[in-house]
Structures
1.
Amino acid sequence: MAANGCKGRLLSLLDYRTEKYIVAKNKTVGVLYRLIQLSIIGYIIGWVFLSKKGYQEKDEAIQSTVITKLKGVSVTNTTESGLLMWGPEDYVIPPQGEAVLFVVTNFLETPNQKLGYCAESPKVLDGLCQQDGDCEEGKLVVSGHGLMSGRCLHRDENAPGTCEIFGWCPVERKFKPQSLLTNAENVTIYIKNFIHFPKFKFSKSNILETTDVSYLKCRYDEKLHPYCPIFRLGDITARAGYNFNDMATFVRVIGIIVVYLGLPLNRRIVLHQGGSIGIQIQWDCDLDKGYSECHPQYTFTRQDITASNTIATGFNFRHARYFKNSAGESYRSLYKFYGVRFNIMVNGKAGMFNIVPTAISVGSGLALMGVGVFLCDMILLYILKNGTAYRQRKFEGSQQTPENQSGILVL
Amino acid sequence: MAANGCKGRLLSLLDYRTEKYIVAKNKTVGVLYRLIQLSIIGYIIGWVFLSKKGYQEKDEAIQSTVITKLKGVSVTNTTESGLLMWGPEDYVIPPQGEAVLFVVTNFLETPNQKLGYCAESPKVLDGLCQQDGDCEEGKLVVSGHGLMSGRCLHRDENAPGTCEIFGWCPVERKFKPQSLLTNAENVTIYIKNFIHFPKFKFSKSNILETTDVSYLKCRYDEKLHPYCPIFRLGDITARAGYNFNDMATFVRVIGIIVVYLGLPLNRRIVLHQGGSIGIQIQWDCDLDKGYSECHPQYTFTRQDITASNTIATGFNFRHARYFKNSAGESYRSLYKFYGVRFNIMVNGKAGMFNIVPTAISVGSGLALMGVGVFLCDMILLYILKNGTAYRQRKFEGSQQTPENQSGILVL
Amino acid sequence: MAANGCKGRLLSLLDYRTEKYIVAKNKTVGVLYRLIQLSIIGYIIGWVFLSKKGYQEKDEAIQSTVITKLKGVSVTNTTESGLLMWGPEDYVIPPQGEAVLFVVTNFLETPNQKLGYCAESPKVLDGLCQQDGDCEEGKLVVSGHGLMSGRCLHRDENAPGTCEIFGWCPVERKFKPQSLLTNAENVTIYIKNFIHFPKFKFSKSNILETTDVSYLKCRYDEKLHPYCPIFRLGDITARAGYNFNDMATFVRVIGIIVVYLGLPLNRRIVLHQGGSIGIQIQWDCDLDKGYSECHPQYTFTRQDITASNTIATGFNFRHARYFKNSAGESYRSLYKFYGVRFNIMVNGKAGMFNIVPTAISVGSGLALMGVGVFLCDMILLYILKNGTAYRQRKFEGSQQTPENQSGILVL
């Protein structure tokens, strides 16, 4: 008898239990509920499945290597340095083909600097002086170029002077925009980008898999050659919305009158010179479509200009080349380089069908139906005028008076 | 009376309401529903909890610093430069211990270049000429090394010549594979990797916390020394599936007959030389298991070779060292460096038990049961032959004829 | 009649069906269920909406560019090199304004090295010798500086000697902590950070949008100037919890007695010198609050020190400057640079209201109610003593004896 009861109990486990429903012949709530159902189904199919591809497992941990190579020569002609040839070994900094690289477009050379004593630049406010006492010996000039010797150098006795410093002499002059590297906008950059999605063991590069060597004579063009990995610098800046030569040379001059020691000095501040361009390589790979359908998308943006920000633009830095003369004494050439920085950023995700995210997408979508049920129940039971009757039918076995059959917050 | 009614209403809020079920003694649907239940529970426990650790809060925003240091010397012996010693300060570019570094394995030196006039390299197609008119004065040679002077230089009158250019002279010769840095595969790289998971305030490094200084005399080995941070370059390439010396020197020569000006020129293209190796450091930390159980995993892959891509491999760049002679004139040595680029990438995630993701995992898993209920209801009510009877019992109070009791899309 | 039936069937689709509930007048389960409901609603509102902002669409794929510029001069005074001025072009490596940069704080110069023959450093264990036979000709010294010539150099016959090598001579001496760059902690770093959230087409920089040029005379201070992009190096290390000068110079000396060939050698190992500092720029932008409410947060951490790790700290590397004498022979100055590496890391996410994540958050939260229903049902039906009566009411149409009406695992 116990075994029999146990067997019956086990068998009853295999009975299917389905929820009992009350049919409320109310078209208002019925139509509302159907609309909610339809919009949830539409959301699941349209948004989750078609737009977001919710049936796919995603890999966003893209591994990427970028190797760059620039080609082209450029010329400068200055009164001091004469005619100079610039190859990629000179105008690309650093030269080893990194993803972040700087292309020199303009420079100011201060040749043959030696350690010694000379006048501080009049551009340095802290280095201005009236008499020797203004230059405290052994102190560094704030934002200056060296150590004060204690002497104040004047042209004539009444004019304001600058402190004598110990440092690399002569100090850098003011900048006169000159020495533009001609032809720099025709330089090409060859970007090799190799990517790997570890979850799917999928590797690809942005270079087409062809044996046609002439393919690498192409130039990138959105429509004609979208898979060409070679870009003209002038085209890149143009696609970012700027003219290469403007970016390289545009000088915005603001006259500011600096009143120092009662004397107005006319000073000019060079703000815009050079800039920073982002090259975004976007890989959105639907691996269900196959290997050959996974292609990079290139976008180009200027990165150093935001909505209304004007004081942060421009890009320059200094670099020194050291030499020794036959006596073994060091001297150097100081270069202030202006130019355009290119920043190659790789981003991507890959997706492939998998049953787990499909189930999660469907399940969480269907769970939303509960919100619809809750809403319609509230309307039916508490807002419509014959709600009490429905409540009595819905909630069985409640022996209270009608006004007590609240059932609020049943969910 | 009103207070009494209100109190009753509040008390009735504490009544528990449970859905009423119809028992359908149908074993087919019952078994199907139990199977769906079991597979969902299996999925929640097996996949969500054990495999994906769905009960953990995750931090994937790993912060990482990589410092590298290479050790070892290498020798080259060439007819031009004689015996040369190479230390890390020479063969590692850049030398400051970055995560992306280049190891020189081969080089071509063009010493003592000066700005001046000489013949363009015959490798540059645009620099070939028959007569002076082919070399337009003041124009840059496309893909060449300088500015044309207007003269065409011949060996003898009938042979094709090359334009005279103004540039760094003499121009680089063709490459003869030579000057291999011997012993470079025995160079060791010491990788210091410090990581931090900000969400859990968890920091660790890939170096064991030991006071035993002899630990740092180890060499990484997957089985013997998995936590050793010092790697032999030859071992790294071997683990990536390549031989270091092959990567450094292998030259693939393809003879291409270039027909230019009616004259066939036999040209050789050096394709493979150098390459790029990725060193992936993977941190998968289960912080529930404790600090000492969080270890890095190293994987090594060749990054510049994809499935069938042959034209993109290899890696080289040029670098110039500048000198001045006693007269103050500049000259330079141009180096074309071939080598292997190492790219250290750090990836990781940490997980720690948290009630919120646990609840979400369980909740969204259980929500999937709704799909099973919907499916079984459809079968029971519309596919099985006594579905009408079940429908009448399930949907109470619908006074229609049986064929109208559709209930389609009840969900 | 068929058309009529079909129309009725369609109309019945618009009937609203609501689940039938059994009211169990059991206060224990009722209170429990209300508590579960309240905590889930609290979780949805408090955690999902207020704390995690679950109603927002997120973009975590921040695009960022960092440009750095250091300002300030520094002085060294050594017996060998005399008084030297250091500008950013010298003490920042690399000089081109990268996000990872190294600031020299200490150096050891080995001037005028030439390729030739000299004694190996006694610091290299493998280079120690007793007789010529210990120095195999043509073999590289392990962890040494060159190629052995086959001779063993002694001061006197009985003392241990070192092998003669071919390499850059003289080899680097032992390090004596000296040559500290004074004033390096007063150097300022100007960090320009431009970010872009592609999903929301939102760009911003860490520099305030002001036309007030004097703004850039500020120094970062958490409370006074939280939006100032200019940092004093000494302040950065102080915020990371370390003193700049300590980091730059602190030498931890451990005496180790190395017994080699029966002779104890007193050797000292310099462990701490230099280090690595991480500057984290965190952008957490709630775009619902508007453009001006999106500000970066700076945090500073020392990266090369973990909980108890002492052998991995410190940071140095070598760099060589090449020269040629008037005879065209190469010589070089080898610099061993000690210093502090700054690693600027940008992280961020932006959120903006979107209906889809709101629906998902609400839906998956409500789905959790199912867990509460399941739990309360179990208690009501199987744990409370009058569970059998509730089971009979809940499961309609089951014609079994009460003890068979198990209903286990109904969910």
Note: Chain C has a mean pLDDT of 81.
2.
Amino acid sequence: MFQCVGLMGTWKLADNTATDFLDLNHWLTMARRCEAAGVDFLFFADDYGYPVVDGGLPATAIRGGVQFPKGDPLAILPALAAVTEKLGLVTTLSTMVEQPPMVARKMATLDHMTNGRIGWNVVTGAGQNASARLFGAAMTGHDQRYEIAADHVDLSLKLWEGCWDEGGLVVDRESGIYADPEKVREIEHYGPHFSSQGVLTVPPGPQRTPMLFQAGASAPGRDLAAKYAEAVFLAAEVGALTEQIADIRRRAQQYGRDPHSIKFLIAGTFIVGATESDAWAIRERQLATRTLDDAAASYAFFTGLDLATMDPDKPLDPSAAKTETGRTNVERFLGPDAPTVRQILEEFQRNSVMGSPFIGDAQQVADQAEATIAATGADGFLVQPDHTGTFDSFIDLIMPELQARGLVQTDRPAMTLRERLLGTGTPHLAADHPGAAYRNGAAAHR
Amino acid sequence: MFQCVGLMGTWKLADNTATDFLDLNHWLTMARRCEAAGVDFLFFADDYGYPVVDGGLPATAIRGGVQFPKGDPLAILPALAAVTEKLGLVTTLSTMVEQPPMVARKMATLDHMTNGRIGWNVVTGAGQNASARLFGAAMTGHDQRYEIAADHVDLSLKLWEGCWDEGGLVVDRESGIYADPEKVREIEHYGPHFSSQGVLTVPPGPQRTPMLFQAGASAPGRDLAAKYAEAVFLAAEVGALTEQIADIRRRAQQYGRDPHSIKFLIAGTFIVGATESDAWAIRERQLATRTLDDAAASYAFFTGLDLATMDPDKPLDPSAAKTETGRTNVERFLGPDAPTVRQILEEFQRNSVMGSPFIGDAQQVADQAEATIAATGADGFLVQPDHTGTFDSFIDLIMPELQARGLVQTDRPAMTLRERLLGTGTPHLAADHPGAAYRNGAAAHR
């Protein structure tokens, strides 16, 4: 879910309501519908960026509403906790913008406010070139951003796992003991990018550490996922997905983690109608809202590259892979069968950063989705908003079909997000997760 | 309002519910009650700090729950927007922790989500010594923190006032124009502490700039208030309040602002009972919960000074005024009639950073409050939570009395917070506010 009008021109459709993204009721309605339908969680993408071409925000992006404007998901998410009881709530926070004590405190407080339904999607920032200018900072190199992210998560884990032992919160009015000084402590951390001596001022919530998500398929992105993620969000075609999932599982094993403890969720675009031809009619209406200029602005946002300045009949120059903005959508178009710049633009106009959509009636898209899961070894989908900017068509048409097939369970009771997705019977990090090593004083400031 | 158990030991009382501060329902109930009673706004204090004595969080503060633990108000506030329609929502964000584009985006999004009911309390951070250690930063000098704050607010104002002209958001599905490139622009800012070239990705909400609050009575604090604040929160005794208000109004005039456009709100502690003796009984119960150790930990939080290491029979050494943590509660105890360290501890045990409470039945406390307003020239009170950790006794006993006297109006319709408090008939910054100078391209990146 994006707290904006969505990827490119779909907002122009008469039945699209994503244009209400600055109205709280839009979100309250969406959250209530998702919960009622038995959806596991709502996921917010986020970044401070926007397309930058030729040194600034291009008129195309302003006029077309391409990755611009957008709001702050954390100004919305707590409101959704107030109107739901089971729905997981996952938000992105960039390790380039938020300092570790900020992430730790926000997430720890939200773990309480949501009764353990919170997740953090760890990213190093999208639209990083725009974001760096906005924050008055030099652009940080792509791979270095992942080193920073690893140090960031490491410190955040110390704050979540290392400050409060189980039973540290006492709240005994008789004896006047609020918390037990033997079980509450400052941690210390002297990493390559972050240092800290301090205590997380929030006692642990139901999950203690929020459920950890990661997105980003570059080599350092996969490595970060393998080390820390409990769920990974991927967007690509089947072949690439299969390779990425196998590779991340391999890397996880090298870090001493159970490779099957990580859940892989594929970006799923479902274009569904009462009939197959209805679905294709929606697809045609949707594609008609997107111009090649929109596609170029969107591509610039994700990669920092301006395709309009390149020869449309040649593939990307291999040096494009050195972009410091985002590499997933550059590497995707390199290699032996590399498409031309024009073909990249056309593909971006169709699908932007997502893989090809599933199109058809409910049975057909369910078949396609099942086949994708079987082929890739993934665990599920991160369903993308439909042409209306909501999940209504998925909920109304596809969920019943998946339920009939026994592929989703829509009547599960309230539980933590980690228990809901991992099914391991514990709300806390697994024992083989690096965060578990910081428990019971192991990260203490002496 | 503090998203914690409150100032010192009141949480130990059997009828105190502030211990539920990590339960969202506690806040939803409070917000609904305040709204139903016609309260203007709910105010969240905030900081990442905690008492630091002898290089770390002292056992006293952990055991007694003194300024520790505490949560993140922004993980709570949006939920309150979902269950209220009129209540203003003001939160503190520190200019030492939050970067200007973060503050600008959070507040702009919240201005939408609350329908213009949001306010920002600009602070340079409380518990700054603890906060600096937690963020792995060197302690920034007291006066320099205010220079940073001024630069921060200046850039934030450019982002709110300078990026989007009125009418910039179009959302015309027919023509496919989302926003007008002639009316949306990047600003630029090269200040002594912050630089930025960028655009606020959030279109303006009802107020555009959140209503601006300031707290902090040191000389640089007053100057910041005089330049930027629309409402100022002060806590002191009548004599000091009168002087501070007159001084800030004088400084505002020097900045070319109408000195009466700033509203002054006094921290008001109301201890009320059905009878005067009931009220005094509550006061006694409350005082019995607070030890001198609690008072010392609380004083250390606000000032960075450890009174336990000083001679109890002497006043503070004048060099204490050079503390880099917080000066309001040092300067308060210096001068010709300076109390001894023991007397400071006793005063802090009674009232912490607040002035003396109003104590009595509803008529008596209303009389006392009226007299304080008349003596100081203030405009109203920032009511502190009562011994139960809520505003219930104020709402149930005092609001009817104030209403009978025509001092509060409890049935006003929904409007922006700025209109509610300033009554100027506009939801936007006044023309003589420095932020108004950045409108219509005056802060543009050329």
Note: The radius of gyration of chain B is 22 Å.
3.
Amino acid sequence: MNTNTYILTIQCADQNSIIAAVSGCISENGGNILNLAQHTAVDINMFFCRIKFEATDKFNLESFKKGFSKLEEKYNLTWHVFDMAVKKRVAILVSKTSHCLYELMLKYADGELDCEIPVIISNHPDLAHVATSFHIPFYQVDPAKGKAEYEADLEAILQQYKIDFVVLARYMQVMSGDFCKRWHNRCINIHHGFLPAFRGAKPYHQAWNKGVKIIGATGHFATEDLDQGPIIYQDVIRVNDTRSIDEFIRMGKDVERHVLYEAVRRYLAHSIFFYEGRTFVIE
Amino acid sequence: MNTNTYILTIQCADQNSIIAAVSGCISENGGNILNLAQHTAVDINMFFCRIKFEATDKFNLESFKKGFSKLEEKYNLTWHVFDMAVKKRVAILVSKTSHCLYELMLKYADGELDCEIPVIISNHPDLAHVATSFHIPFYQVDPAKGKAEYEADLEAILQQYKIDFVVLARYMQVMSGDFCKRWHNRCINIHHGFLPAFRGAKPYHQAWNKGVKIIGATGHFATEDLDQGPIIYQDVIRVNDTRSIDEFIRMGKDVERHVLYEAVRRYLAHSIFFYEGRTFVIE
Amino acid sequence: MNTNTYILTIQCADQNSIIAAVSGCISENGGNILNLAQHTAVDINMFFCRIKFEATDKFNLESFKKGFSKLEEKYNLTWHVFDMAVKKRVAILVSKTSHCLYELMLKYADGELDCEIPVIISNHPDLAHVATSFHIPFYQVDPAKGKAEYEADLEAILQQYKIDFVVLARYMQVMSGDFCKRWHNRCINIHHGFLPAFRGAKPYHQAWNKGVKIIGATGHFATEDLDQGPIIYQDVIRVNDTRSIDEFIRMGKDVERHVLYEAVRRYLAHSIFFYEGRTFVIE
Amino acid sequence: MNTNTYILTIQCADQNSIIAAVSGCISENGGNILNLAQHTAVDINMFFCRIKFEATDKFNLESFKKGFSKLEEKYNLTWHVFDMAVKKRVAILVSKTSHCLYELMLKYADGELDCEIPVIISNHPDLAHVATSFHIPFYQVDPAKGKAEYEADLEAILQQYKIDFVVLARYMQVMSGDFCKRWHNRCINIHHGFLPAFRGAKPYHQAWNKGVKIIGATGHFATEDLDQGPIIYQDVIRVNDTRSIDEFIRMGKDVERHVLYEAVRRYLAHSIFFYEGRTFVIE
């Protein structure tokens, strides 16, 4: 007996009757829809759909895929189906500040991150004790070796642990274009500014000097263009003008860790669609 | 040629394959789904679904209803279908404060309330000029006549204007049980407290005396039990402890008018489902 | 008997004992402090203070000013004292969209804007009826005349009405550098983007294309550098990815009108301090 | 040389010239005001003031107190002065859920809780490992012994560690009236509901059944009347109607831990004033 749950994601130009066709195909193949979220973006005439369904006894994944490929042809749609029993393997990269790492660890321990986290990697030794207290192997890599060699070390660890997805949890190294390409749309970074404003270094200093009244953080995919990758999640906090830069930094930590967690959660739930450099998060 | 848009709402015990069956039925009858929002409430095992579809040339409403009644039988579902071309007729009842009335008027003038507002009724003369400046007939009713007679006057105006739906926009009269029954789930009130706390009179005074740090407002259906009807929308605002009761009242106005508008908008969009004394708003 | 209330604002390099000296001076001259808000910005070592005091029988404004000028010398401070009985005269400039104008009108009518609004000016005839319904003179100016001549017309109206302060309430004309200089720190604009991101035209389109998850509006002083003047107030609203550009525009209106009102209110309360291109709002 | 920082709190009926008198007294005794926050609550005619000052070489605490007692007499004011170099000793009481404990531990480790935390106490063994990983002694007490004996054990530990202040971090035992009296205004509890609504057990279930659209948490002082003590801090989160009770519980955790931290921080900063069963938090 098959009791698996699957996520099906679909993306195509908007057309008539797609939902009926797709839900019919799932039903005919022995799937039972638990949740369907759909959006037609009228500004670009695109259709996005995320369906969670459970497999009944009659369900067979290969038959389903074969059946579905006919819809692919008919509607010219891009689609993926994910078996929720297969957990993504996630590596967390950190430097010296612990708040983002702790947030991910605590959510993971609480069963709120649906993945495996087999390894934590850092360019500094400072957070080894955190990894150890959660019984996760900790590796230190050395950027002083030179970017190519150091990224090769990093890549070797990612390969060794069969990593699917990388989280930069306030990792203070700019990744090479090659790295970003290899991990295209599979590497999330947290930026401590409300992008697209305040890119690059010291965003809290930039924000304070500009006198903005609300600060934020942005979870986005890492791309070769620094801090310009597709945005997944953002949150903000009001700062009145009696706050110093140090207080911006302190208050911002709570926003950063929350945003990173929410971005990772959306990735693991297969809720993220891509179109022309931006995301559509359909939940 | 038929270019109408329809909203279909469905509510039933959760069962397999409902979405496939429903979307199939729409498609077979010449409807094209524009938007489908669905929710299975696991705590009560109920399924709620709101579908917006456009009618193609082949669509015939009576045939659709006939076809759909088979699904009604099979799945034991409660359903309604609304022709979006038929606008609800809404009466607004006010007393002396203008902020909620103005909000509805401005949104109406801006095309953001999908209804007709043929009449404004008050128990005071104060806001006649507002109605007039928006060219809407204004009636004054007199509660001093005694509740029965005064509500009869009110009802006569509602009948005269073929009103479908009543909005109490800070209307300072408690409606009778009979009135609430007649307008069951068709009369929205705005309460200036974050219900279920601070029911009844002077909610801002109650909130201040309790020292709460956040105040709010609640849009809900009027029922015989004062301020206990199903909640549609709520919003809040942080109040620091340097605020006086008068400032609570002033700040609260912005929350009230926003909440009332959002509640009315959800009603007009047919997004509200009812189950055991509460609402499920599915958008 | 003198029952006036005054606002005193002070700005200087941070030094010991300023609060004691200032509050002593007020007390000795027959003033009674009702409210004192003070902030030392450690990042720039600056002291800002806003004091509201009432005048007792013994108070004499000229004596107070004479006494206070000694503190000015000793602490090298910049200060202003405002008699709250003297209302600022405010002109509102509008174009075609009514939401910001209506917000200011309604707050004004409700006694929540502590000023006089003797005139409304527009480059279009569309909103004349709004001005009229609030019994405020409406003037139309014509940019087609050429910038110099048109701004001269505008300036003549502002002079005629003895205007102290100008509010650009979605006024769709870029003001000249000369105008901005003449009205330096006395002209507030509302930008429909969360500055410093999305400067210039069509900020909602920019935001949608970038895929940001939160949009906002910014109330700021108009300067020659478009959308770069000192920020007074900002607010934001979460937008999920099912929102179209049109919905951004619709939802943004509520943020814009609220932000503009809050910015104007802070200006009228003398709560805004300036330092190196940014504001410090001390309440 | 004396470089200490002090917090002075003052509370009295509102009167003329208090700020001048108080700031003068500090200055004359060799104190330099770093920050002054003051509020006159017009609804009850009470004056609250919190002053942070640094001691210059000339400052002598005993002389200051003597000098200040004259103001106490003249203005009939209640006051306290706290040497910020003397850290409060805080005990954390926990049961089985870790999120609130972890939040306090992480903020403590990050230097953002200005206190000593010498002991963690629980009625269950589950969280011993968390205490140990932060190198803080962990004690288990046994309610099965009977309330009197078990609270005596608890009290003995609190005495042994010279505890000033107790934090109930989702501690699942109702404290006796005697305990609440002994720790009057020195024991903070976190309630997982937006008080005063949803007192007592299972507040998330209550909230879901009522269909509220926003849930919250409340940090308050423990009193004999369950969940009715003075409120210190509250925060809320919007929940749409597609959320289950389990999701309320999961989402609520983030609100609870944040609110508890903010409440404790305000207590340690001496920002909390009491008047007629509510707090005034003056920052």
Note: Helices of chain D lie at 18-28, 61-75, 99-109, 128-133, 147-160, 177-182, 203-210, 245-268.
